[in-house]
Design goal:
The chain has helices spanning about 1-5, 15-20, 25-30, 40-50, 55-60, 70-85, 90-105, 105-115, 155-165, 170-185, 210-230; strands at about 60-65, 85-90, 115-125, 130-140, 145-150, 190-195, 200-205. It has one domain: Alpha-Beta Complex (Lambda Exonuclease, Chain A). The chain is about 50% helix and about 15% strand. By secondary structure, the protein is of the alpha/beta class. It is globular and about 55 Å long.
C-alpha cells in the first residue's frame, strides 16, 4: 500500500516544493529512484516510534550491530536489506528512544497524539485547478491534524524560520485542504517539534490564519502549474531568458575597494 501511494501521480506537499523550483526538477525526482539519506532514515524511524508506540522495534526497523566491511557485517547487511525495514545504528536507536520518550513526556504533545489515527494516506481532488492530490498525514484525531518534525532547534524563532525555509506552511494548508475535501470539516493543524540533541526539547506550534492563507495560495498557484504540465506533458526548467536579480545590500558595509580584475 505504501509503495502504491508513493507511485501514485498526484500533487503532494513535497512534490509542490520541487514544482516551485521547476517542473523539470519535479519530473526528474519522480523518474529517478533515490536512496534515502541517513538523516531521512533516522527521521522515519523517529516518526514510527512516536506515532506507533504499540508496535515492537522489530516491526519498525532493523539495528546495525556489526561493521559492514567484515564478512559477518556484509552477511548481516544483506539479511537486513532483504527484510526491507529502515536500518539504523545502535547509537541512533538510543537517540530515537530518547526523542520518543521526550515527545510522550510532553503533556501537550501527548494530549495531541492520544487517540490519533496515525500514518494516514489520503487522496482527493483539490484547488481551483481540480488536480489529483495526496497527503501522508502523521496523525489526525480529536484535536485535529498533527505533524511531527525532528529539528536541531525547536525554539519559536528557529522553527518559524524552518516553516518558511522548508515550506511547512504549504504542507499545513495542503493537509487541511485534503481533510476538508474528504470529510467536509476544517481541522486545526499542529506541529510537534522535537530536537535531535539533549535535552530533546519538545514544542508545539500552530500557524496564524495569514500563514495558512499564504500556504494555500502558494499551493493553488503550484496546482495550476502541475495541471498545465500534466495536460501538456511539458515539464519546463528555468526561464529561457535573462532575469534581472536585485540583491539587498547594506551600503554601510558594502565592499568599496574591489579590484577591477575581480570582475
Amino acid at each position: 500500500m505504501e509503495n502504491d501511494y508513493f507511485k501514485l501521480e498526484a500533487l503532494s506537499a513535497s512534490g509542490a516544493k520541487l514544482l516551485a523550483r521547476s517542473p523539470a526538477h519535479y519530473k526528474a525526482a519522480m523518474e529517478v529512484s533515490r536512496t534515502p539519506t541517513p538523516a531521512q532514515i533516522f527521521g522515519t524511524v523517529v516518526h514510527s516510534m512516536v506515532l506507533e508506540p504499540h508496535k515492537t522495534h522489530a516491526d519498525l526497523f532493523s539495528v546495525k550491530e556489526l561493521n559492514w566491511t567484515t564478512k559477518e557485517g556484509k552477511e548481516e547487511k544483506a539479511k537486513l536489506e532483504r527484510i526491507g525495514l529502515p536500518i539504523i545504528s545502535v547509537a541512533d536507536l538510543d537517540k530515537a528512544l530518547r526523542m520518543r520518550d521526550s515527545v510522550w513526556a510532553s503533556k501537550h504533545a501527548a494530549e495531541m497524539l492520544t487517540g490519533c489515527k496515525t500514518e494516514q494516506q489520503t487522496t482527493w481532488t483539490g484547488y481551483d485547478s481540480k488536480v489529483p492530490c495526496k497527503g501522508g498525514i502523521d496523525g489526525i484525531g480529536e484535536h485535529g491534524i498533527v505533524d511531527l518534525k525532528t529539528t536541531i532547534d525547536a525554539s519559536p524563532e528557529a522553527f518559524a524560520r524552518a516553516i518558511r525555509s522548508y515550506g511547512y506552511y504549504m504542507q499545513a494548508a495542503h493537509y487541511i485542504d485534503g481533510v476538508a475535501e474528504t470529510t467536509g470539516a476544517i481541522a486545526p493543524f499542529t506541529f510537534i517539534a522535537v530536537e535531535k540533541q539533549p535535552p530533546y526539547a519538545v514544542a508545539c506550534y500552530t500557524l496564524s490564519n495569514d500563514s495558512l492563507a499564504a500556504g494555500w495560495a502558494a499551493m493553488n498557484r503550484i496546482a495550476k502549474i502541475y495541471s498545465d504540465c500534466i495536460n501538456t506533458n511539458v515539464w519546463p526548467g528555468y526561464e529561457g531568458r535573462s532575469i534581472e536579480l536585485s540583491i539587498p545590500i547594506n551600503l554601510d558595509t558594502a565592499v568599496t575597494d574591489l579590484e577591477l580584475e575581480d570582475f
